[in-house]
Amino acid sequence: MIHWISNRHAPQGRGSTRRLAYRLPKGSLFESSAKPSGPTSKGDIQRMSGLENKARWANDSIFKLKQVLFRSCISSLIVCLLVFGSASMARPSSWDPGTVIKKYLRDHYPWAEIEILDISGEVSSPALPEKIHLIQGPLGRALFSLVFKSGEKALIQAHIRALDWVVTSRRPMKKLQPIHKEDVYLALMDVRRMPKDALTRLESAWGKTMTKSLGANMPIVQSHMGDIPLIKKGQRITLVASAPGLKITTPGEARQDGYSGQSLKVINLSSKRDVRGIPLDENHVSVEF
To answer: Distance between CA 244 and CA 254 in Å, rounded?
Structure first.
């Protein structure tokens, strides 16, 4: 171990040295001299103070410069957001080729629903097209030409599928079976698969008679049905002859089926004469004198 020994009685004035000694384990004594650290005069202290002030000023300047740069970046970012944000908002949010084409089809075709399964084409104009021309289609693979106010044109390809309502059998129907409200319902069907004369309104089927058998959940067409006769052939009925202030009734019999609003042949059982009349209801036929 080294033991340091300080000479406390050595002179401490300017230019003097402090005598230091250390002792080795064996007991030998060596001396060493060292100059004192730190400022030793008033000039040194002033110079150090000046350097510290300059360093502090430099740090303050750098901090202020960083603040200015930060504020400038924030301002530039806000300006960019305002400019590009306004440009994006100026473009109609609904400007989508699929939406525009679907609206065109709805305006020109009476289908209940329209589906665009896929669409392709390039459109660079931010404005909505002024005109749309159908080049091919509209069902299946269709081709549209979009014309813009600037004169620009764009070709859009799309696969179009349309659905419409059709009267459908709720349960199996037999030939000559009357159609009641609970026997049918409306269902959406692909337009290209719909029969040509398919019924699209429930009222068109109510009160009719099936002319052929039909399975459940099948579209009903005009040729599948006929009118239900109010009066059946051979049915006993009442013949009614009326005039202002006068009404005569007599028994009769239908020679054929009678439908609402249609003339049928009947026989007057009292006179055994054949006459023609129009059904009033299920039991009465209007005849002339």
So the answer is: 26
Mean pLDDT along residues 10-20: 46
User: What are the domain boundaries of the chain?
Assistant: 40-90, 97-163, 168-227, 236-287
Give the Å distances, CA to CA, from 67 to 70, 93, 142, 225, 283.
5, 39, 60, 87, 102
Contact between 248 and 236 under an 8 Å Cβ cutoff? The reply is: no
Q: For 236-287, give the CATH class.
A: mainly beta
| 100 close to 132: Cβ distance less than 8 angstroms | yes
136 — phi, psi (to 5°)?
Answer: -145, 140
| C-alpha–C-alpha distance, residues 114 and 102, integer Å | 7
* Per-residue pLDDT tens over the stretch 25-75: 444 444 444 444 455 566 666 666 666 666 676 677 777 777 777 777 776
Which CATH entry fits the domain spanning 168-227: 1.10.3470, 1.10.150, 3.90.1210, 1.25.10? Answer: 3.90.1210
- By DSSP bridging, strand 208-210 and strand 184-190 are unpaired
Q: Which residue has the higher pLDDT, 28 or 109?
A: 109
Name the residue among 205, 252, 209, 251 with its Cα closest to residue 230: 209
Q: Which of 273, 275, 272, 270 is nearest to 256 (CA)?
A: 275
Q: Which residues contact 216 (CB under 8 A, 6 or more apart)?
A: 169, 170, 171, 172
pTM (predicted TM-score): 0.51
Is residue 9 predicted with pLDDT exceeding 80?
no
Residue pair 239/249 in contact (Cβ under 8 Å)? The answer is yes
- 284: β partners: 238
Cis peptide leading into residue 138 (ω within 30°): yes
